[in-house]
Each structure stands twice: as structure tokens, then as C-alpha cells.
Design brief:
Order of helices and strands: HHHHHHHHEHHEEHEEHEE
Number of helices: 12
Distance between the termini: 39 Å
Helix content: 55-70%
Strand order of the largest sheet: 2-4-5-7-6
Structural class: alpha+beta
Strand content: 5-15%
Radius of gyration: 29 Å
Largest sheet: 5 strands, mixed
């Protein structure tokens, strides 16, 4: 084998690995619905396979039945009822593809052929294909092609050669194609409607966000006036003065938090059409210092929970305000985790050592459950529910990736959460 051939094989292998990794990531990001469908399909197969053997073998006898194929389908589907316990395994998407291919297109096409295209099996095959294409369209097409081809090859092998299809069997192809196109177009229509709904929500969201600015600005101005009045007024009780200052600090915190949330809403309202490209050369150390000065800590005790370790400062290309919003969001999330756990600290590490510029956000709060971790960067996903807008981390991901960087998270429940932000070197 020549060096050129080895290099070509290596590149093809790396390309396949990237494709498979992307498939796994997409699969994990949608795991909630996928696992639920896999779970339901598995139970339908486990119950339906033996049940309909009795139906078609004894109650309404068909020319051909095979208990072995049905039992194999049951055995293949048994692990799927526990899919939610091991959905992060890299082999699960392959298992899902094999199970889906066998249970729907292969089994029903093979039984349809072995029963000479009887009406019972032609209708059953059509139902199976409609069910198949309710899954991801690309995955369904692959499963359909693989399963149908395998079924025809098995049929030819058992018949000791090709058997010409009769008119009834040939007529099934246009019907199958029509059913597949109809289901696929219906799914596209749903996506269009969902996109229109999101656009309408975004417009309304932007309007409401702008309207909220006025009362918040008024509250902020009045708070500044109250602070000046307190400074110019002698309050005999130090305890009363401390309580008043704490109340003002709390109002300021809420105003800044609401303004930060409104900024996120406005930036997300344009559905990813924001200008988040490169604009300035920023120092990460300076950005972190600025955020710590800007963050409305409740008291000095909360401020002391945050420590910064600068291993090596680094520069990156971004925008000052967007960077501040990303860091503020991560810091706010860390304090929420600490509050939920009732313990913990925040550690920020700036590491500009070659070859990668990295920022670590580490908190030792409540952690994130492994079943939730693949979803945290999904837009509008919030856990626990009603604890936020669900746009903070998705916003962070969009901004960092627009700057050609990456953000990922590792966490252990009741122990820690680590966000790693990676930035490219400036040429």
C-alpha cells in the first residue's frame, strides 16, 4: 500500500469520525424526544411482535409467518426500554439505527414479500413506513434504504433467485413514495409554522423588552437620588442605616439583573442575525476584572466567594459589552448553583498558555445532572423549570462561536460544574 493511499484512508477515517461525532452531538441534544420515541417503539415491538404472531398465525392465518424473526425483534428492542439510563453512550445512535431499521422497514418489507404482497401486509408495511418517517427524516431515509434492500436480498436468497414482482407489488411503490413524501412535507410544514411562531414571539419579546426599559430607568434614577439623600442625611441608628443601604443595594441588583435579562432578550429576538463578529482586541484579565467590579454582589461575603487565578493573561477578538454579558451570565449561574446547594465557591482561571487560550468558570455548587447536561445550551431550555428564561447559555454559545471559539461544560451532581471557554490565538 502506497503512502498516498494510506494518507487518503487516514483522511477518510478522520472525516467519518467527525461526521459520527456530529451525529452523536445532534442526537444527544435532542435526546429527550428521541429516547421517549425509542422507549415507546420498543414497547410496541415487544408487545406487538408476539401478539400479532398469534393474530396472523391462528386467528387470521397468513401464508407465511416466522416466530424466529419476531423473537429476534423482541430481543433487539429489550435494551431500548432502559435507554434513558445510558443515552450518553456513543454506541446508542448506532443501536437506535439498527433497531429502527430491523423493526420497521426490514421486517415489514420482508413479511410483505414472503406473503406475496397480501393486503394485510401491504397495509401493515404502509403504516410502518409512516411511523418510520415520523423520526428524523435523514435517519428514516437511511433506515428505509438499508432495511428495504436487506429485505429484498433476504427474499431473493430464500427464493433461490429473483422472483419477478406482480402488478400488485409494483403498485405499492408509488403508494409508498407518496406516503413518505406526504409525511416529510408535513414535517417541513410544521417546522415552517414553528419558525413563524418563533419570529412572532421574537417581535413581541422585543417590544415588551423595550417597554420595560422606561420603568427600570426611572427606578434606577430614583435609587440614585435616594442614595444621595441618605449620604446628606444624618441617621442616628447605624443599624437603620445599614438596613436602608442593604435595601437599596438589593433594588440596584434587581434593576441590573432585569437590564441584563432585557439585553439577552433583545439580542435573541433577532433569531441569530446579530452582528457578533470580531471588533476589538480584548484582554481576558481586564474583562474579568471589569465584570467583578460591575456585578451587583449582595454583600462582601458573596464577593469573597469568588477567586481569580491568572496563570497567563491572553488577548482575543470580540466585543466588550457582549463579553461582559457572557461572563455576567456565567457568574450569575454559578451563584444560583451555590444558592441551590447551600454551599460552594466560584473559581475563575485565566490560562493563556499555548496552544489554546482558555477561561475556566468553576463552581462547587449543586452541579448538573448528567441527563440534563447535553441540553443546557439549547435555546429556551431552563432547569429547574421557571428558574430563568433559558436563553443565557444559548446566548453565550452563539457569541463565543461567532468569535471562532468554543464553550463546553463538565459537571458532577452535588459536586461541581466547570465551564471551559476556548478562544483562538490572535495571528
Amino acid at each position: 500500500m502506497t503512502t498516498h493511499t494510506i494518507e487518503w484512508v487516514r483522511k477518510r477515517w478522520q472525516a467519518w469520525q467527525r461526521t459520527y461525532s456530529s451525529w452523536v452531538v445532534d442526537y444527544n441534544q435532542q435526546h429527550d424526544n428521541t429516547v421517549k420515541r425509542l422507549f415507546l417503539l420498543a414497547w410496541i415491538a415487544i408487545v406487538g411482535m408476539p401478539l400479532y404472531y398469534v393474530v396472523w398465525a391462528y386467528w387470521f392465518p397468513q401464508p407465511y409467518e416466522n416466530i424466529g424473526l419476531r423473537l429476534f425483534g423482541v430481543a433487539l428492542c429489550l435494551p431500548a426500554i432502559f435507554a434513558k439510563h445510558f443515552f450518553k453512550q456513543k454506541w446508542l445512535p448506532i443501536y437506535f439505527f439498527i433497531g429502527l431499521t430491523y423493526v420497521l422497514p426490514f421486517f415489514f418489507t420482508f413479511m410483505y414479500l414472503m406473503n406475496s404482497g397480501s393486503s394485510v401486509w401491504s397495509e401493515s408495511l404502509l403504516i410502518a413506513l409512516i411511523l418510520l418517517f415520523h423520526f428524523d427524516t435523514a435517519l428514516a431515509f437511511l433506515a428505509y434504504l438499508a432495511g428495504t434492500s436487506a429485505a429484498y436480498l433476504a427474499y431473493i436468497f430464500l427464493q433461490n433467485g429473483w422472483v419477478p414482482m406482480n402488478a400488485h407489488e409494483l403498485a405499492q411503490w408509488p403508494i409508498q413514495i407518496f406516503a413518505i413524501l406526504t409525511v416529510s412535507l408535513t414535517k417541513i410544514g410544521r417546522k415552517v409554522l414553528l419558525q413563524q411562531k418563533l419570529e412572532g414571539m421574537s417581535t413581541a419579546l422585543a417590544t415588551v423588552a423595550h417597554e420595560l426599559r422606561t420603568p427600570l430607568l426611572s427606578i434606577d434614577a430614583n435609587i440614585r437620588g435616594v442614595k444621595r439623600a441618605i449620604q446628606n442625611t444624618t441617621i442616628e441608628s447605624s443599624a437603620e442605616k445599614a438596613l436602608t443601604e442593604q435595601a437599596i443595594a438589593r433594588v440596584e441588583f434587581e434593576v441590573r439583573y432585569m437590564n441584563n435579562t432585557i439585553d439577552l432578550l433583545l439580542l435573541n429576538a433577532s433569531n441569530g442575525n446579530n452582528n457578533w463578529g470580531e471588533a476589538e482586541v480584548l484582554s481576558m484579565n481586564a474583562a474579568v476584572d471589569s465584570v467583578l467590579q460591575r456585578y451587583p454582589f449582595v454583600n462582601q461575603t458573596q464577593r469573597e466567594l469568588v477567586s481569580v487565578n491568572v496563570r497567563a493573561d491572553f488577548f482575543f477578538q470580540g466585543k466588550t459589552e457582549l463579553c461582559s454579558m457572557v461572563l455576567l451570565n456565567l457568574l450569575s449561574n454559578s451563584f444560583k448553583a451555590i444558592h441551590r446547594a447551600g454551599k460552594g465557591k466560584v473559581r475563575i482561571i485565566i490560562d493563556g498558555s499555548p496552544p489554546r487560550n482558555r477561561l475556566f468558570f468553576i463552581d462547587t455548587g449543586c452541579g448538573i445532572d448528567s441527563t440534563r447536561l447535553p441540553l443546557i445550551f439549547k435555546r429556551f431550555y431552563a432547569y429547574p423549570e421557571h428558574t430563568g428564561t433559558g436563553i443565557g447559555l444559548s446566548f453565550c454559545k452563539e457569541v463565543i462561536e461567532a468569535w471562532r471559539g468554543h464553550i463546553h461544560c463538565a459537571s458532577k451532581i452535588n459536586s461541581h460544574t466547570i465551564f471551559v471557554l476556548e478562544f483562538p490565538q490572535i495571528p
